[in-house]
Each structure stands twice: as structure tokens, then as C-alpha cells.
Design brief:
heterodimer, A: about 220 residues, mainly alpha, 6 helices, about 85% helix, B: four-stranded antiparallel beta sheet, 10 helices, 10 strands
């Protein structure tokens, strides 16, 4: 029956997106590990991983387009496919941010280590948790989990703001640390961007499940 | 101009079987409203109640309050023939009078209503054929060609012209494009969109994409009840009722 073929297509789309989510999580982990260990091999892994993410992005877009053209989905199915396409783009951007972090780390480790008053691994753990939970909400179609992700975004924003303050102070007090401090500041910013992508993913899950647009701080149901 | 339709507490029966259960529905003037639902849900019965076609089936009856513009369709003393003149109907299968010329097909309803003025009749036939987007294709063969000589899509537009000739206020369409190829279908859909400037259109369709393309409002019927009635974009993106969602996503039953 045609509908079971359609259902298989939807299942395949979900599976592919979750696999892509796994790649994006891995990219963040490796980037943080590179920072923590100052080991360039993790940076290389991030760069290699990036190709897989880009490939996965293309495959997901292609499958989503095929399903739209061939099955003319409606209602929750249409919202699902639209959410997948948007989450796909967010995950690809997460991969890009991991690459940016890896490049900053390569620059950091080309110079002697400088002690800086910012806990990047802790911020990384919060961001990873957000991405994980946003994907978990997608896996089970759980809008409550997605809502929890939206709350976590404020914490990460605050971490980045704090990093900005202490790193600027450090640069003023010890100008010789500027290069390292700037790299770390950019890493904090990349992490904060990843948190924004996790927030987008959570919003897309809520749209899929409830048919409500919660972007930009409001619940907008179609009139 | 089209007029609005107010349906309150409409019940329809086939013998003792209750085929429509207390339907309330407000159809706005000069809009296209689609009625969707699985086979046997009552959608065709519903539109046939709007112009008193339902009761032409033996043992079929209807009760309730149906107002089309200023006429109370089931009011005492309301003439069903007058109701049907004001509410035109187009069916699934094009049904032109096969041996009549194109002109006579369009003029048939006018003649039945006792219309005799030739000049005015010419004008009405031309206007109706223009409204149904068939004029350019048939204007040179109006009297030479028969209704049956046209293609399926042209025949359906001829039937629409025939309905329009008697100047109705509402046009009911029961699966008007389901027997047509995609090109004829898109012509009919384009036509429906144009017609709403002059008429109120209610279309029954099995084709949900068609409802989504042509209608501003969509009602979903299931087992004789109107389950959900809302703006078309709401019905097809985020319906409120689980049964509507199951039907339009094909997970029904």
C-alpha cells in the first residue's frame, strides 16, 4: 500500500536525521576534547567528520524533497518534513561551528599554554546536553523535553557573557595573553551559537508535534 | 452576486437511516468552500440537501434549517424548482445533452424557465460560456457541434456554463474534476477560483490537494457528522481534531 511506503520514507528520514545528529554531537565532543587535551589529532577528526555531515545533509534534503513531491504530505506529516529540513540545516551549522572551534584550538596550541579564567569544557558540556536533549525530543516527539531545552539556552548565554567580561579584563591586564584570550572568546561564541541551533531544533520539534510556532518567544497557533 | 448559506440542525435520512446528523455550517458568500471526507460520510448528501436534490431520491428526506441568501430552503411554501434555479449544480461526470448543440445545451435551462427573448438568450449564452472559460474554444461552432463532440474537460465546462446561464447565486460541485485529466482539472480549478467573484461555490472532493488548492474553507465529514470546519490552511497544516488529521494524512481506519 502506498501509505506504508510513505511511512517507510518518514521513518528513513527520521533515522537519517538522528544519525546526522550523532555526527554533529561527535563533532562538538571532538572539538572540546581538542581544546581540553591540546591535541591536534582531535582537530583533524572534526575536519574529517565535517565531510560526513555535509554528505548527510545533502541526503536528507534529497529524501525530504522526494517525499514532498511524491507523497504530498499533509498536516503532521507535512510539519514533520518541514521540521526535518530545518533541523537538518541547523545540524549542518553545528558541524561548521565545531570546525571553527577546531581551527581556534589549532591556533591556541601553536603557542605556549596560557591559563585563562574560563571553563570551556563546562560550557561545552552544557551545550552538548542541549543538543542531545533537542535530538531526544525529536526522537520521541516530546515537546516537554524540547521546552526544557529552550530554558537551558539562557544559561549558556550567560556563560558566554561572563567569558566576555573576564577575557576582556585579562587582555587589558596582561596584553601578552590577547591572542589566546581572543581564541577562547571565539570558542565561547561558537559554543553559544551551537546552543542557539539546539534551541532552533527544539522549536522545530514543538512545531512538528503541536502545530504551534514558538519561535521568537511566543506560542503562535494558526488561527 | 453570491449569497451566504446558513445550515442549522440539518438531518438527512435514507428511509430510516440517519445519513446526516444535526449539521451546523455557515458558508460565506463569494468564497469557495470544500467538503471532504471518506466515501459514505455524507458529503454528497450534504450538498444535495442545499438545493433539495436529496429528496428526489425515493424514501430520502431532510429536516432542519437551511437558508441560502434570503430563501429558507425547507421553509413552508418554498418551491424546490426555484431553489434549484438559484443553486446550480455540477456533477462528477459531465452530462451534456448529447444531441443538442453547444448553444442549446447552455440555453436549455433558460428555455425550461420559459425564457424566450432570443437576443437576451444569445447574450446569456455568451456570458455563461465566457465565465466557464469555454467561449474561445467553441464560439465558431456553437450551433454546428453537439455537446457530445467536445472533450471531457470541455463537456464539464459546458455543464458549468449551463448551470451559470440561469444566473444562480450558489454553485454546488460534486467531484467536478474527478473524471478529468490533469490539464482539464487545472482549468476547472482555475475556473472555480474565478467563479467565486460572482458566486458562492461549494465543492465536494475526494482529492485533498484539490480542496487545498481551490478552497478557502474546508469542512471534514465523517459518518454523517461535520467533524471540523475551518480555514483550509489550518485544516491541512494543523487540524484540531485527531480524526481530521488521521484522514488527511491517510492513516484513516
Amino acid at each position: 500500500m502506498t501509505r506504508s511506503r510513505f511511512q517507510n520514507g518518514l521513518d528513513e528520514l527520521k533515522e537519517k536525521l538522528l544519525r546526522m545528529g550523532g555526527l554533529a554531537e561527535q563533532a562538538i565532543d571532538q572539538a572540546i576534547e581538542a581544546y581540553r587535551t591540546r591535541d591536534a589529532k582531535y582537530c583533524q577528526k572534526v575536519l574529517i567528520n565535517e565531510n560526513d555531515i555535509n554528505q548527510a545533509e545533502r541526503e536528507i534534503d534529497e529524501l525530504a524533497l522526494d517525499l514532498l513531491a511524491m507523497q504530498q504530505p499533509m498536516a503532521i506529516d507535512l510539519r514533520f518534513i518541514m521540521a526535518v529540513v530545518k533541523i537538518n540545516a541547523d545540524l549542518e551549522r553545528v558541524g561548521d561551528q565545531a570546525v571553527n572551534i577546531a581551527q581556534r584550538v589549532l591556533d591556541l596550541i601553536s603557542e605556549p599554554e596560557v591559563q585563562l579564567p574560563v571553563d570551556i569544557p563546562r560550557m561545552g558540556a552544557s551545550v552538548t546536553a542541549m543538543v542531545q536533549r533537542s535530538l531526544e525530543s525529536f526522537l520521541d516527539g516530546k515537546a516537554e523535553v524540547a521546552e526544557a531545552v529552550l530554558q537551558m539556552d539562557n544559561v549558556v548565554d550567560r556563560m558566554k557573557d561572563e567569558a566576555f567580561v573576564v577575557l576582556v579584563q585579562k587582555m587589558i591586564a596582561e596584553p601578552q595573553t590577547t591572542r589566546a584570550a581572543l581564541n577562547v572568546l571565539l570558542i565561547a561564541r561558537n559554543l553559544e551559537r551551537i546552543a542557539d541551533h539546539a534551541t532552533n531544533i527544539a522549536e522545530d520539534v514543538i512545531f512538528w508535534v503541536r502545530g504551534a510556532d514558538v519561535r521568537h518567544g511566543g506560542a503562535h497557533f494558526r488561527a | 452576486m453570491g449569497v451566504g448559506i446558513e445550515v442549522r440542525g440539518l438531518n438527512a435520512y435514507y428511509g430510516k437511516h440517519l445519513a446526516l446528523k444535526s449539521i451546523d455550517m455557515t458558508v460565506p458568500a463569494n468564497h469557495v468552500t470544500a467538503v471532504i471526507g471518506p466515501s459514505g460520510c455524507g458529503k454528497s448528501t450534504f450538498v444535495r440537501c442545499l438545493n433539495r436534490m436529496h429528496e428526489t431520491i425515493p424514501e430520502a428526506s431532510a429536516e432542519g434549517d437551511v437558508k441560502v441568501g434570503d430563501i429558507s430552503v425547507y421553509g413552508e411554501g418554498t418551491d424546490p424548482v426555484e431553489v434549484r434555479r438559484r443553486i446550480g449544480m455540477v456533477f462528477q461526470k459531465p452530462n451534456p445533452f448529447p444531441t443538442m448543440s453547444i448553444y442549446d445545451n447552455v440555453a436549455a435551462g433558460l428555455r425550461l424557465n420559459g425564457f424566450r427573448n432570443r437576443k437576451q438568450m444569445d447574450e446569456l449564452v455568451e456570458r455563461s460560456l465566457k465565465l466557464s472559460a469555454l467561449w474561445d474554444e467553441v464560439k465558431d461552432t456553437l450551433h454546428k457541434k453537439s455537446g457530445a463532440s467536445l472533450s471531457g474537460g470541455q463537456q464539464q465546462r459546458l455543464c458549468i456554463a449551463r448551470s451559470l446561464a440561469v444566473e444562480p447565486e450558489v454553485l454546488l460541485m460534486d467531484e467536478p474534476a474527478s473524471a478529468l485529466d490533469p490539464i482539464s482539472t487545472s482549468k476547472i480549478e482555475e475556473l472555480i477560483f474565478q467563479l467565486k467573484q460572482h458566486y458562492t461555490v461549494v465543492i465536494v472532493t475526494h482529492n485533498m490537494q484539490q480542496a487545498a488548492r481551490v478552497a478557502e474553507l474546508t469542512g471534514f465529514f465523517l459518518m454523517g457528522s461535520l467533524i471540523e470546519y475551518d480555514k483550509t490552511e489550518k485544516i491541512f497544516t494543523a487540524p484540531a481534531d485527531k480524526r481530521t488529521e488521521d484522514y488527511i494524512t491517510g492513516r484513516f481506519g
